[in-house]
Design brief:
By secondary structure, this protein is an alpha+beta fold. The protein is about 55% helix and about 25% strand. It is built from six helices and seven strands, in the order H-H-H-E-E-E-E-E-E-H-E-H-H. A hairpin with a 2-residue loop joins strand 2 and strand 3. Helix 1 packs antiparallel against helix 3 and helix 3 packs antiparallel against helix 6. The longest helix has 29 residues. The radius of gyration is 20 Å and the shape is elongated.
Length: about 190
């Protein structure tokens, strides 16, 4: 199991590095344009093309996809970077990732266990198992055992906290996505305009 976990973490890091490399392509295009190897507008073209791909690909790298395998202590699913298995008895942290597409809001609970394996939980069955695991960890933390770090938004989404904070989380997530995408395009256009 240890070798499988190591491979899973390595594949996840490789996938994230690839997504970041895609986002950085306009800077490479800028360097090539400066030496005259490509047209000066290349960073603009690359920025618009890779920005969409990178911003869409990065959040979905760890999301669960069929087929799923659930046991009493593990969530296992396929992701874009291969199969991942999270130990529910050793959860280190849970956070809520909110993305937007076609006028809809998509929420993914990103679970990380103590071995560093991350899995984006999107199905109702997986959410129920995760909720039970967090409730069990919370009960154990009342007896002095340190529990996982679960964000307020994740607790709210799982129904473990009052519903007040989810709207603020959604607004902040929307602003973060909007501002970062806008700044990315501005930088790509500036690089292309030189």
């Amino acid at each position: 199991m240890e070798a499988s976990t190591t491979r899973s973490v390595a594949r996840a890091r490789t996938g994230a590095a690839l997504a970041v490399a895609v986002l950085l392509l306009p800077f490479g295009g800028y360097g090539l344009a400066r030496i005259g190897a490509v047209p000066e507008s290349t960073p603009i073209f690359l920025g618009l093309l890779t920005g969409v791909g990178g911003f869409v690909m990065l959040p979905t790298l760890c999301e669960e996809r069929a087929p799923f395998r659930h046991t009493s202590s593990r969530l296992t699913a396929h992701t874009l970077t291969g199969e991942r298995s999270v130990d529910l008895n050793r959860i280190a942290g849970v956070r809520l990732l909110t993305t937007f597409s076609y006028g809809r809001t998509y929420r993914t609970l990103v679970v990380r266990d103590s071995q560093g394996v991350r899995l984006g939980v999107t199905t109702e069955r997986s959410r129920r198992k995760l909720r039970r695991a967090i409730e069990k960890a919370d009960a154990n933390s009342a007896h002095g055992v340190p529990g996982p770090r679960v964000s307020r938004a994740a607790r709210t989404y799982l129904g473990l906290a009052p519903q007040r904070g989810l709207m603020a989380h959604t607004v902040l997530a929307f602003l973060l996505v909007t501002v970062s995408a806008t700044l990315y395009v501005i930088v790509a256009v500036r690089l292309g305009g030189q």
